[in-house]
Amino acid sequence: MIFCAVFFMGIVSNELAGMYMVQSNGGIQLSKEEFLTLMIVYFSGMLAYGITYTAIEADSPTMQILDEVAKTGDSGMHLDELGARMTDEMLLYPRLADLVRDKMAVNDAGYYKVTKKGQILETIFRIQRNVFRLPKGG
């Protein structure tokens, strides 16, 4: 759904910029440069969505840590206390459930295995990290 909205926004932005011509049959004919511009906008939106999806879908571990430490105010929180609060129930299990729900992994008698869909997504993000020379991590 979001990708359709991004695609539509690209068409609308081209219309507002006067970058297209309406054909007599009501279709839109873009020049090669205009189509390239539209695709850049579309794929940029798609990548931005892919990067931010997990932050929208669930609390990130970083935000959970910040939230816990912020609750203590100026006194701060010792690493041992923070470690005790950051449990598997809070960090690990919700993410495993998300992977299984989204068919990125399966639970086979307690053993989690990555599905083809999960392998494809992992490959896309690995290639993206390599292209932009990004370190692992969130």
Description:
The chain is mainly alpha-helical and 138 residues long. It has a domain at 1-57. The protein is 64% helix and 9% strand. The strands form two sheets. It has a two-stranded antiparallel ribbon with strand order 1-2. α1 (2-16) runs antiparallel to α2. The protein starts with a helix and ends in a 7-residue tail after the last helix.
Features:
single chain; 138 residues; mainly alpha; two-stranded antiparallel ribbon; two-stranded antiparallel sheet
Give a quick precis of the structure:
By secondary structure, this protein is mainly α.
Present the secondary structure layout.
Blueprint: H1 2-16, E1 21-22, E2 28-29, H2 32-57, H3 61-71, H4 79-85, H5 88-101, E3 105-108, E4 111-114, H6 116-131
Antiparallel strand pairs: 1-2, 3-4
What is the strand content?
5-15%
Count of helical stretches: 6
Q: State the shape.
A: extended
Average pLDDT number: 80
**Strand elements, count:** 4
How are the strands ordered across the major sheet? 1-2
Distance between the termini: 25 Å
